[in-house]
Amino acid sequence: AQSVTQPDIHITVSEGASLELRCNYSYGATPYLFWYVQSPGQGLQLLLKYFSGDTLVQGIKGFEAEFKRSQSSFNLRKPSVHWSDAAEYFCAVGGNTGTASKLTFGTGTRLQVTL
Amino acid sequence: GAVVSQHPSWVICKSGTSVKIECRSLDFQATTMFWYRQFPKQSLMLMATSNEGSKATYEQGVEKDKFLINHASLTLSTLTVTSAHPEDSSFYICSAGGAYSYEQYFGPGTRLTVT
Questions:
Q1: Would strands B10-13 and A24-26 be described as parallel, antiparallel, or unpaired?
Q2: Least buried of A36, B69, B88, B108, by fewest C-beta within 10 Å?
Q3: 48-107 in chain B: CB under 8 A from chain A
Q4: What residue of B is the nearest CA neighbor of A40?
Q5: Across the 115 residues of chain B, what is the mean pLDDT of every consecutive 10-residue run?
Q6: SS3 B67
């Protein structure tokens, strides 16, 4: 069974500081990996995704993530956080089926940005 | 990216009544749609997967007779919560994926409150 662990429930960083959100996954084969962001009361916005190829993927809003198979990790990073980045971040894993497959989400990390 | 809409965005209903939530793919044909539920400050949990023209596949623990899912066309799926109770109050999010595509696109969500 596939699963995702986001060990940090809540993170606070200062505006301008760097950010790393951790994500570990469990999946029997090569997974599809995603990071989504959710503002309160809103739907999900895709930040970036990994399907194959280059293990360092770039996303929107200056985010990037690195797929490390040996560590079963897909950590999200941003070099300089903006106050507008405050939100809930979800890591998700999906099956490598060739079509859209059901996603398993982590429990989320709430990011707070201090000015 | 592709656009998925949900209607209504929020709904309040009385205990014992039924409520229908629509999920539409506006600019692509959604061969597969997924329904997720999110309780406050929690992650998204997959409820069911539906393929156009087929019966939905429900996740373990989800009552198929209570959460009726219909995916009769390539652009519309509906979730009907029958005989709703206060514990069904939640944020319901759909997503849609096209044929031969790994990605799925999320709707903005519907907040259901059962009084």
A1: unpaired
A2: B108
A3: 49, 91, 93, 95-104, 106-107
A4: B41
A5: 91 97 92 92 91 89 95 92 96 88 87 97
A6: strand
